[in-house]
Amino acid sequence: MRAALAEAAARHLPDWKEKLTPHVLRHFCASQLYFAGMDLIAIQETLGHAWVATTMKYIHVHRTHVEEAWLAGQQRAADRLKGLIP
């Protein structure tokens, strides 16, 4: 698998040919599954991790995603409070 991955990376992603490993792909896949909405526990099971803390190390979240989620949460809270506070 490593040889096939190295060959594919050299052909299609030359800048990544030395860096792209099965382990890097696990990190990428875990992050993509998370962003697609897959539950963290389901990702843990998929990766075969005993601890969810290990899975969390595999998921890389960009700062803009955190900021957007925070703003969305603030908006939901504000919408719920409308009419409750005079």
Automatic annotation (TrEMBL):
Domain Tyr recombinase: 1-71
A GO BP entry: DNA integration
Keyword match Transmembrane: no
Keyword NAD recorded: no
InterPro entries: DNA_brk_join_enz, Integrase-like_cat_sf, Integrase_catalytic
Coiled-coil region(s): none
GO terms of molecular function: DNA binding
Keyword set, alphabetical order: DNA recombination
Protein name as annotated: Site-specific recombinase XerD
Protein source organism: Nonomuraea jabiensis
